[in-house]
Fold 2-amino-4-hydroxy-6-hydroxymethyldihydropteridine pyrophosphokinase.
Amino acid sequence: MQQVHIGLGSNLGDSRQQLEQALQAIGRLPQTRLLKTSSLYSSAPLGPADQPRYTNAVALLETGLDPLQLLDHLQAIEQEQGRERKGERWGPRTLDLDILLIGQQSISNTRLQVPHYHMHQRPFVLYPLAEVSCADLQLPDGRLLVDLLLQCPQDSSLHRLAP
């Protein structure tokens, strides 16, 4: 079993409901147990500005699935919730599930990059990640989460949502 951090995002439809349904589906995955979920955050979209704000969160889980099996399950959940992969980078979506970290593993292949690329520059990832992680979380490259938070660009558009 290994600990995995999953980033969740949605900006189409009822985003809160999309994330809640995704968390329930993640909790039902084989050999997987949902351990913690962060607060929900609202953030401005990356890329095209003419799209709704995102609702984001991070989940911590424990799984016996290998990384590509987990990725396949997460992509199936996205598809079940109406995600259409049109090739538009950073476009609007009903659901986005990203594997952020898998313990201390580094993975780089055509299907999966872990740690998730650019996560260290994204407040909508780092702040919820800090909520579900230990204070001294260390990434595979040796960087500490607390240092990434200190170096993270200020984002006045990021807001923690009420439960």
